[in-house]
Amino acid sequence: MVLQVQTSTYEAKTQEIAKQLLAATQENRSFFSSLRDQMRWDDKLLAWAMSNPGLRVQLFRFIDTLPALHSKSEIASHLQEYLGDESVELPAALKGMLNFANPDSMPGQVAATTVGTAVETLAHKYISGENIKQVIKTVERLRKEKMAFTIDLLGEAVITEAEAQSYLERYLKLIQQLVEASKNWTAIPAIDEADGEPIPKVQVSVKLTAFYSQFDPLNAKGSEERVSDRIRILLRRAQELGAAVHFDMEQYAYKDITLSILKKLLLEEEFRQRTDVGITIQAYLRDSEQDTKDLISWLKQRGYPLTIRLVKGAYWDQETIKAAQKHWPQPVYNDKAATDANFETITQLLLENHQYVYSAIGSHNVRSHARAIAIAESLNVPRRRFELQVLYGMGDRVAKALVDRGYRVRVYCPYGELLPGMAYLIRRLLENTANSSFLRQNMENRPIEELLAPPIVKDTKNKNSPVSSSFLGAADTDYAVEEVRTKAAQAFQSVRQQLGRTYLPLIDGEYVNTPEFVDSLNPSNFSEVVGKVGLMSVEQAQQAMQAAKAAFPGWKKTPAKQRADILRKAGDLMELRRAELSVWIVLEVGKPVKEADGEVSEAIDFCRYYADEIERLDKGVNYDIPGETNHYIYQPRGIAVIISPWNFPLAIACGMTVAALVSGNCTLLKPAETSSVIAAKLAEILVDAGFPKGVFQYVPGKGSQVGAYLVNHPDTHVIAFTGSQEVGCRIYAEAATLKPGQKHMKRVIAEMGGKNAIIVDESADLDQAVVGIVQSAFGYSGQKCSAASRVIVLQPIYDTFVQRLAEATKSLNIGEAELPSTQVGPVIDANARDRIREYIEKGKAEAEVALELPAPEQGYFIGPVIFSEVSPNAVISQEEIFGPVLAVIRVKDFQEALAVANGTNYALTGGLYSRTPSHIQQAQTEFEVGNLYINRNITGAIVGRQPFGGFKLSGVGSKAGGPDYLLQFLEPRAVTENIQRQGFAPIEGAD
Fold first, then answer.
1. CA gyration radius for the chain?
2. In sequence order, what are the residues at sequence separation of 6 or more whose Cβ sits closer than 8 angstroms to the Cβ of residue 595?
3. How would you write 301-351 as a 3-class SS string?
């Protein structure tokens, strides 16, 4: 029976121990060491960062950029750019140092050397060594101080399978080298044994996701198989050599699948009796207490203890931002006190279950350690089952004080090259300089009572993310949740039972039979018919036009609020049918699952955003003066024809259609033939939501017949089109011709594609750039109008970039769109496949093939192709290909990069990966695109956040999902009334 002790009993003991520990950590240093510290630039930088928030942000951004800077001139110019920012109030010493005219000058070189050395010194504080020799030296010093260690390998993000294999091999080598060195180490009873049981001298800490470059909770089974194979190799070798392995915890999205994989693996017969393995719990997560309880229950069932390392958590900013951007509940506590309180709760839970679990309490907060000791001593927890941990360079004095009290202390030692380790360094610096950090508060000599007070939780109920914009979009599906993945699988089963059905046009509220039908096929498997679509005749199109004309007067008079409410209901119906709609998108147009889900979110957002917008516009604007009212109002134009594309069969069709409808226009939707089933599903939803007959009509048909008839009809007022430049220009020309009986000019809104470029300069974070470019170029097989088809890379990093890009692309999974492992699915049909193949042949004649991946045979598949050494004027650099083909262009400098980027007929999306403020500034003004994305992928625009659309030959009209979009479907009017009667008029404010 576990001994339960009142929390209040623990508190008295906690205070007593904490005061003793604090006294030991605050002992005065010698006069000489304090003098030496005053002279060191690394300490000055930290002190300045603490006292100036603006400097803190810019300094850490500069440090983040440092690995990419290869000369003192580059370092000097970036120093000036970052720290010369208006938001930064510079200390006199720093201001003086940065006051040079030219980065190449002697003062510029001195500044670069001084700051570069200071950052390197800082890095050495937190990184235990750059090579194995240095690490062994560090751990031998730690052992002399009676401290155990665990080693973590720093390095670039794992984004290729070659890197995942290398990660495993580097750890196998590291264990081998450490064990070899340990043979010469003298046994230290305080850390090498406890309760008569030996403790492994060597321990390594690994990140599970680094064992597979395409690790993804959506593909839980595939990720588990790939990761588990590599982990088994690691665990077997560690056992042979007598080393322990601990699994770190990473971002929240990976938590559940990480725990699931480790639980399954460690129950396998081969590993079930292992006790030299550890798992990590992060106390800043709201569900960490429940996870701990589940782990303890599982350990009881397993029958052999494991270590659970309890930490606060290192990704708070990242988790908070991601949840806010995704409109997901906050996984972390918003208040540091809540994290501290939870940390103490879990500490107690672990120690009260010491017969099932070895506890490793990781913190730099004296109170947290004191709390653990108070509980452990009260419960007589055996020494083997309890240890305290600190990060290298973070809690040196606390660690020494704990060792002096006779406790086993383990130091977490990151190891690797300093420059790739900068991301780790910045996390440590953020932690050290945060206002709420215990280390900072202790340095500032806060009162002891304040430092050691029990954490008081203000409010843990608010789980929602802070949102900056007024429009709150629909949340994408979080596939990290197992129940959600199950629901998605069920939706596939349900939809598959409905395949092959017939979908007819909707004219004046009735589904009508048609003379001609076409099969809509699954591009992943063209023997599978998704549905049969009735193609209407021109005569039927004529009937639809008459019905729209008859319905218009009534719809025009319908109050905007009523129209908006119908639209909101349509959005709600889509949310209810989200999983099913995603499946139709996957099966009919071959879009992978996550991207299909994102498209449903976009369609829902269009409904809700445009409903809000029409209510805003319906208020009009008053320009009244005494004696006269002036009202600026909007009215619907009339009949709108929507010609929607196949590549966003739900979102774009929905966005254009509902914008026209909610503005009071009667609307005919003619979808692309290859995506008419999804458009039929949209039609069902709009009818169910309450759009009256004749107001909305679904009119599938041949573009050359029905499309041309509707475009040329004299009663058409607005044409909204998304598709090719050739068809868009033809529509524009035809709409400009006045037809007999036509009493108005037609309004054309046309989005016609792009030849989108991403620039990568020398200062770019290549990990981030490669991942973002792979997504932008090969997501949905390059079939988005926003997809990247050109990458313009500066000379100094060109070769390295192409090599990493090719390796990362090689690691992608190509396959049927419905498979959770698929990142690259099919192209839309045989015509598209053949056209893309022709472009690939042209590319081979004018550039070098850096990568060409094979593709499955049973569908319309094309493996990603990357061309290098491409001329800016080559055919593949100038013409829109609309497939997974990427041209990588080499340029000498940033000016040339911009000129090449702007050197096509298009101006839709563009991207820049750079950490040079002046380049970012210049791109914002000179990069000719409608949507510019900096340091992120260039696809996936979100309604109300990134209104979407371009100029030049990329299109005409305002941006979808933006504040001007509905104006295109409306006619503005000004109404003036003289309100004087016999010289009298009401005057506001007069008695």
1. 32
2. 779, 780
3. HHCCCEEEEEECCCCHHHHHHHHHHHCCCCCECCCHHHHHHHHHHHHHHHH
CA distance 347 to 324: 30
Q: How far apart are CA 251 and CA 246, in angstroms?
A: 17
> Which pLDDT does position 124 carry in this prediction?
86
Question: Token pair of 226, please?
Answer: 């790939």
Contact 589, 649 (CB under 8 A): yes
Q: What is the Cα–Cα distance from 787 to 776, expressed in whole angstroms?
A: 5
**Alpha helices, DSSP H, located in 697-797:** 708-712, 725-736, 766-778
- The DSSP string of 435-501 is TT-HHHHHHTT--HHHHHSPP--------SPP--SSS-PPPPP-TTSHHHHHHHHHHHHHHHTTTTE
Which contiguous run of DSSP H or E holds residue 139? helix 132-144
Could you tell me the two tokens for 803? 């090599």
**φ and ψ of 88, to 5 deg:** -105, 125
Would you say 867 and 885 are in contact if contact means Cβ atoms under 8 Å apart? yes
pLDDT at 56: 84
The catalytic site residues sit at 751, 785
CA distance 450 to 19: 12
What pLDDT is recorded for position 46?
A: 73
Within 10 Å of residue 976's Cβ, how many Cβ atoms? Answer: 11
Burial label for 134, CB within 10 Å (0-12, 13-18, 19+), is middle
Residue 171, both tokens: 């750890």
**Residue 518: how many other CB atoms lie within 10 Å:** 17
For tokens 């595939």, name the residue. 222
Rounded Cα gap, residues 944 and 241, in angstroms: 57
DSSP category for residue 508 = T
CA distances from 897 to 314, 320, 754, 924, 950 (A): 37, 35, 17, 14, 20
Please write down the HEC assignment for all residues of 205-236. Answer: EEEHHHHCCCCCHHHHHHHHHHHHHHHHHHHH
**How many residues appear in the chain?**
991
Instruction: Please state the pTM of the whole predicted model.
Output: 0.94
What are the per-10-residue average pLDDT scores of the chain (991 residues)?
54 92 69 47 73 84 90 94 84 84 92 89 88 96 97 88 95 98 96 94 96 95 96 98 97 96 97 97 97 98 98 92 94 94 97 98 94 96 96 89 95 87 77 62 70 81 57 95 95 97 98 97 96 98 98 98 98 98 98 98 98 98 95 98 98 98 98 98 98 98 96 98 96 96 97 96 95 98 98 97 97 96 97 98 98 94 98 98 98 98 98 98 98 98 96 95 98 96 72 57
How far apart, in whole angstroms, are the C-alpha atoms of residue 149 and residue 410? 5
Beta carbons within 8 Å of 928's beta carbon, 6+ residues apart: 901, 902, 907, 910, 951, 952
Residue 266 token pair: 């460690």
Starting at the edge strand found earlier in the chain, the sheet holding 970-978 runs 621-622, 628-636, 970-978
* Strand-strand pairing, 716-722 and 639-644: parallel
pLDDT at 461: 55
For residue 428, the model assigns a pLDDT of: 76
Q: What is the pLDDT of residue 464?
A: 57
**How many C-beta neighbours within 10 Å does residue 35 have?**
10
Of 965, 224, 218, which Cα lies nearest the Cα of 582? 218
pLDDT for the residue 87: 76
**Dmax (CA) of the chain:** 110
For the stretch 399-406, contacts whose Cβ atoms lie closer than 8 Å and that sit 24 or more positions apart, written own/partner, are 399/145, 399/147, 400/24, 400/145, 401/20, 401/21, 401/24, 401/25, 402/21, 402/369, 403/145, 403/146, 403/147, 403/190, 404/24, 405/20, 405/21, 405/373, 406/190
CA–CA dist 945, 654 (Å, integer): 18
